[in-house]
Design brief:
Strand order of the largest sheet: 4-1-5
Largest sheet: 3 strands, antiparallel
Number of helices: 2
Bound molecules: iron/sulfur cluster
Number of domains: 1
Number of strands: 5
Distance between the termini: 29 Å
CATH architecture: 2-Layer Sandwich
Strand content: 15-25%
Mean pLDDT: 92
CATH class: Alpha Beta
């Protein structure tokens, strides 16, 4: 039997998702985290790059989620 290596497991990946039907275009997400949130021509937000959040930006992503006035941002980790 091969012992399990005590090596590193992959770090969890965080993704953000914008519910575009809820989004009212306040642009807060884009102001705080432009690396992750873009606005379309109508000012509605969308996640850039499949919503994958680099580890260095995860704390800001949580802040954006909490501050979105429309609760339009979901975060999935794992
Ligand atoms: S902060 Fe929320 S409501 Fe405002 S643009 Fe971003 S997702 Fe939309």
């Amino acid at each position: 039997m091969i012992p399990k290596s005590p090596g590193k497991s992959a770090p969890p990946v965080m993704r953000v998702h914008v519910n575009r039907e809820r989004c009212q275009g306040h642009a807060l997400c884009n102001a705080i985290l432009p690396e992750i949130f873009a606005l379309d021509m109508l000012g509605i937000a969308r996640a850039i790059g499949h919503g994958i959040v680099p580890p260095a930006l995860t704390e800001r992503a949580r802040i954006v989620k909490d501050f979105c006035p429309e609760h339009a941002i979901d975060i999935v980790e794992g």
